[in-house]
Specification:
Keywords: Membrane, Transmembrane, Transmembrane helix. By secondary structure, this protein is mainly α. The protein is built from 9 helices and 3 strands, in the order H-H-H-H-H-H-H-H-E-E-E-H.
Length: 234
């Protein structure tokens, strides 16, 4: 029965991973590579469990197997990122691993109601902090967006998905081929123009530049725009 359950879980995990990747509209080559890497991961996890775990009631064997699983998941994460340039969420792997470890402990240890509650609170806390961390680290400036999203995209489909829905059809492969030699490398300098509109209709042009020396934005130019120029941006 345990072997049947393992095969079922492996099939579900494989289908979910490949299905999620397919929703990103990958190229045929990337899809095949991802499928092969995922099949290898599931196969290695199954082989490790089959040959290492002799006693399902052995806490030691369960813990060591979970540690081996995390090593394989980490290698899989790196291979997918390096070969396909698809950024999987490593935090999700960590959360699943921690949840699995706590589940193993709960099954093998005679825990009281309060101790089980502590395990549950631990999982909820780790998940909550992870979500909070993602929220706090979301890109809030053009520079953040560039380094967190654009520079890591090496496919036409991936960069197209960063566009707003209404503009995606206007981003062609020809445009991508022209931009790709530049976008995947750090620029020499940033110039960030911003229009600040105030009560009374006056508009100020603020141009900032990223300083590599101080690792922050600095003002390059600030001036009041003439009305004839302001009308071009409305």
């Amino acid at each position: 029965m345990n072997e049947i359950n393992t095969k079922y879980v492996s099939l579900v995990a494989f289908t979910l991973l490949v299905g999620i990747f397919y929703t990103t509209n990958p190229g045929t080559k990337d899809f095949i590579l991802f499928t092969i890497l995922t099949a290898m991961l599931i196969g290695l996890l199954s082989v490790c469990k089959h040959y290492y775990i002799k006693d399902e009631n052995s806490l030691k064997e369960q813990i060591i197997y979970m540690c081996l699983s995390m090593v394989l998941l980490s290698i899989y994460y790196i291979l997918v990122l390096e070969i396909i340039s698809f950024p999987l969420d490593y935090k999700l792997f960590i959360l699943i691993w921690i949840g699995s470890i706590l589940s193993v402990l709960r099954r093998h240890l005679n825990l009281s109601y309060m101790e089980n509650a502590v395990l549950l609170i631990t999982v909820i806390t780790i998940f909550s902090v992870s979500v909070y961390d993602d929220y706090k680290n979301r890109p809030t400036t053009i520079i953040d967006f560039y380094f967190q999203n654009i520079i890591n995209e090496t496919t036409y489909e991936g960069l197209q998905n960063l566009y707003v829905d209404s503009e995606r059809p206007n981003f062609t492969k020809e445009t991508y081929n022209e931009l790709s030699p530049f976008l995947n490398n750090p620029p020499r300098r940033f110039h960030l123009p911003v229009l600040l509109e105030y009560a009374g209709g006056r508009t100020i042009l603020l141009v900032t530049e990223y300083s590599e020396e101080y690792e922050t934005l600095q003002i390059r130019n600030i001036s009041i725009l003439p009305e004839e120029l302001v009308s071009l941006f409305k």
